Amino acid sequence: MQQYVATCRLSKLLFAVAFFVHFTDTSLHSAIASSPYTFSSHSKMPKTGHRYDRSGTDLTDVFGSSVRAKKKIKSIENLLARDDLPADIRIEKERALKALQVDLKTRLFNLRTQKRAKKYHMVRFFERKKAIRKLKQAQKAFDQVTEEGVKKEIKKARKVLKHSQIDVAYNIMYPKSQKYISLYPSGPSAAEVEDENVKKGMLLTDARRLEFKKKVEDLIDSDKLPFTFDEILQGKSINVDNVRWPQDSKEIDAATNENNEDEEDDFFE
C-alpha cells in the first residue's frame, strides 16, 4: 500500500515538471516572436551610421600614376564634401589629398619638361654651336685689341665679348621646363609685321628673351654660373641638369592645364 502511494506521488511530480517546462518554452517563443528586435534568417542588421574605411588612405598604388592620382583626388574631394565626416577622418583625408596634389603636379611638371626638352633639342643644339663660335671670335678679338692697348677698341671689344658670353649662358641655362625662345629668330621683325596680333606676340617674345638675358647677365656678374667660359672655349662638355628659374605657384599650377595642349609655339623658335 505504501509503495502504491509513493508511485502516485512520483507520477504527479513528473507531470508537474513536464507541464512547467512546456509552459516556459511556449512563453519564451511567444516573447521572442513579439519582440521588435527579432530578426529572421534573411533580415539585415540595422545601419548604425556611415563607416569610413581608413585603408582607403593608402596611397602606395597611386603615386607615380597620373590617372590613378586624379581618380583618387576626385574620390577624396567628394568624401571631404560630406558634412558628417568625423574630424579625425577629415584631417587624415586632407593630408592624403595634399600629398596626392603635390605628387601629381610634380609628375606633370616632369612630363612637360621631358616633352619640351625633346622638342627644342635640335634648336638649342645648333644655337649653342653658333653662340660658342661667336664667343671664340669675340674672345680672340678682345685679346688682340688688349695687346694693342687702344682703350676705345678695348671697351668696344669687351662689350661684344660680354654679349657673346650672355648668349652662350642663355642657351645653356635656359630652363628645359619652359618653351625655348630662340636667340637668333628668323623671319621679319615685329616692326615689319602688319598683323597686330602677330606683332603683339612677337613683342611679347622679344620682351621675354631680354628678361632671360638679364637674368643670365646677373648670374655672370655675381659669378654664380655652374661653369666657366674658359671651359666652353676649351671645348669641354657642359651639362646642366634640372635647372629652372624660380616659379610661383600660379606657374606651377598652370602645368596641369598645359599637359594636354598641343603647343605650336610659333613665336618661340
Question: How would you describe the overall organization of this protein?
Answer:
- This protein is 64% helix and 0% strand.
- The chain has 269 residues and is mainly α.
- It folds into 2 domains: 54-112; 120-258, no CATH class.
- It is elongated, with a radius of gyration of 41 Å.
Helix content range: 55-70%
Q: What sort of overall outline do the alpha carbons produce when their principal axes are compared?
A: elongated
Number of strands: 0
| Sheet of most strands | none
Helical element count?
Answer: 8
Topology order in helix (H) and strand (E) letters: HHHHHHHH
Q: First CA to last CA: what distance?
A: 130 Å
Structural class label: mainly alpha
Which percent band covers the strand fraction?
under 5%
Unreliable sequence segments: 35-49, 246-269
Tally of structural domains: 2
What is the mean pLDDT? 77
Radius of gyration: 41 Å
Family: Belongs to the EFG1 family.
Subcellular location: Nucleus, Nucleolus
Main location: nucleus
Organism: Metschnikowia aff. pulcherrima
Can I get a quick summary?
The chain is an all-alpha fold. The protein has helices spanning 2-34, 66-80, 87-119, 121-148, 151-173, 196-221, 229-233, 249-258. The chain starts with a helix and ends in an 11-residue tail after the last helix.
Write a concise keyword list for the protein shown above.
coiled coil, rRNA-processing protein EFG1, 2 domains, elongated, signal, mainly alpha, 269 residues, 8 helices
